Amino acid sequence: MDKSLEGQTVLVTGASGGIGAAIVERLAAEGARPIIHYGRDSAAAEVLMSRIGGRGLIVQADLSSADGPFELWRKAVEAAGRVHGLINNAGIRTEISIEASPEDWKSAWQKEFQINFFAAADLAKEAIRHFKANGGGRIVNMASRAGQRGYAADAMPYGATKAALVNLTKSIARSFGADGITAVAIAPGWVRTDMAEDFIATHGKQAAVADIPIGEMASPAEVAELVAFVLRPSQNSLNGATLDVNGGSYIR
Length: 252
What we know:
globular, 9 helices, Rossmann fold
């Protein structure tokens, strides 16, 4: 495989499972040194590190806490010295009905925004400062089709956080491109992860793929390959783009 990312150190949040793990493996295969972030599953992080032959770093932080993202960035820089890329991949999806109590409703929205958006914004803040002082860098925000076309009634917080992430990407791209800092959002539809498998177990595969013209979900490897492509030094002009990976289920 082409070692187009040789010499790059890239922080991947939520790296211990699903899309995050696939991204780490792809980055390592293309020559990068991934920083594997995990929240609670240290065993999965260690297994992932072994799969890439130990050619990475592992950092723990709780992104659901207010200081968690800042702690993560501090640990990443302490461990790596120079960081060249940030992949804001960590995310959760909460189901909450409009019939829920005000307390449960607010709690669901606040938790989802903290992990899916505020943590990404905090990490981007620190990354931008680091990149400005060290010759530039790349930010990739893992958004979603849901952030562009809206989402299901019982999961509105998820779509809202992903829409905010797309807008954050555009603001970074417009504001810091002159500093050698580029930002790109990737917006998958259904990806064959544990979250998708849980949905299929409850509703059946046809319910998940019914509006996907190609009739299949994306694989984590497909998304990971696109992330690695975005990080290539040759791809400066992708700055500000939102790249759709949804099988044609949402076309802009």
